[in-house]
Amino acid sequence: MKQKGFTLLEIMIAVFILALGVLALAYLQSSSLKTNQSAQFRSTASIMASDILERMRANPEAARDPEAAGDDAYNTALNVDPNTNDGICPASPAVRRDICQWLVLLEEELPEGDGSIDCDGRSPEGAIICAIDIQWTEAQSSGNLSATTFSYEGAL
């Protein structure tokens, strides 16, 4: 029996199988990192939605009576531009300050982060129901960027 060169072939096959295993582990690690980042963005969005809802609960008159708080109450289209004045938010009225600070935080914490608030609903008990939507852009597993929206509802 001739076995000359057979061990070289065995080694090449073993190295090929080992290389496939290493590539599979690298793909698994990459996929895990993307999933972890996506979970972090969702967690951040949840915290940011709770943050603005708590700010609104601290100033319920603005949500209950937008006219008393000025023309930029919480249920407007959020036309406060946090990029004006070098990101310095106005001190008053409190509604504009809260929204501006919230938008700045969204931009800092989420990629292309933005948000909207709609306080038009009422519960049977008379509480104001606010819908908070937070949008950001994240990479999908295919590598393409897509917009993601986190929706949150709370009562004042």
TrEMBL record:
Mention any Pfam family matching this sequence. N_methyl
Supply the alphabetized keyword list: Membrane, Transmembrane, Transmembrane helix
Which PROSITE patterns does the UniProt record give? PROKAR_NTER_METHYL
- Is Cytoplasm included in the keywords of this UniProt record? no
InterPro entries the record matches: N_methyl_site (IPR012902), Pilin-like (IPR045584), Pilus_4_PilV (IPR013362)
Quick check: keyword Endoplasmic reticulum in the entry? Answer: no
Q: Where are the transmembrane segments?
A: 6-28
Write down what this protein is called. Answer: Type IV fimbrial biogenesis protein PilV
